[in-house]
Input
Amino acid sequence: DILHLYGQGPCLLAPIPRLVRPGMPIFFTCGGLDWQRKKWPPWAARIIRLGELCTVVFPSCRIVVSEALKDYYRHRYGVKTHCIYNGVEQAHLRAPQRISRYGLKARSYFLFVGRLVPEKRIEDLIRAYQARPFESSLVIVGDSAGTETYVKWLRELAGADSSVRFLGYQFGEILQELFSNARCFVTPSELEGLPLTLLEALSYGLMCLVSDIAPHQEVVSRTGGRTFPVGAIETL
Output
């Protein structure tokens, strides 16, 4: 009965159903400004930006996941959107059992969780951590999303520092343990829609240190947390 397109890029295809079934409602959900992601070369970013224009012209209903995205569409295009926030399941608190294989104990590490892509600015986190000695480790959970060169550079940046630990993607009970036992959750990202990993960290009652982009501020203004300017390593 309806077509639901998720993401700006897929909306490039929206003209097709408009031609084939003109009366069928098209719903669109925007989880972020995908053309701004640094992993895209300029030609790909321009194509996805064309998809953004299609999200203005063709959908019957536009959904966004944050007030920041709602403001973007209103100010840039003068179109109405409906904000439906991302949500996460209730936290499952777990004792540190499986994570002991990585030498981790309760409250012994700072935690980042997410795709390892340039707009997350994980290099800022590594540099801030290495700028002074900590008894706690830095645990980075996530891996490449078509960004192998960037991930290799991050590992080189960490060097031989065994206290910076790359655990790759983790799921299920191990991820629940990592959230349950972290000392603090940190994300220095410069681009988000409404980050699920931040919502997950908050559901586990973690103190969160986040960059001061609008989607982060939208969350921590209601839940508490600390912010720092994007790229401000000394402040972080």
Summary: The radius of gyration is 19 Å.
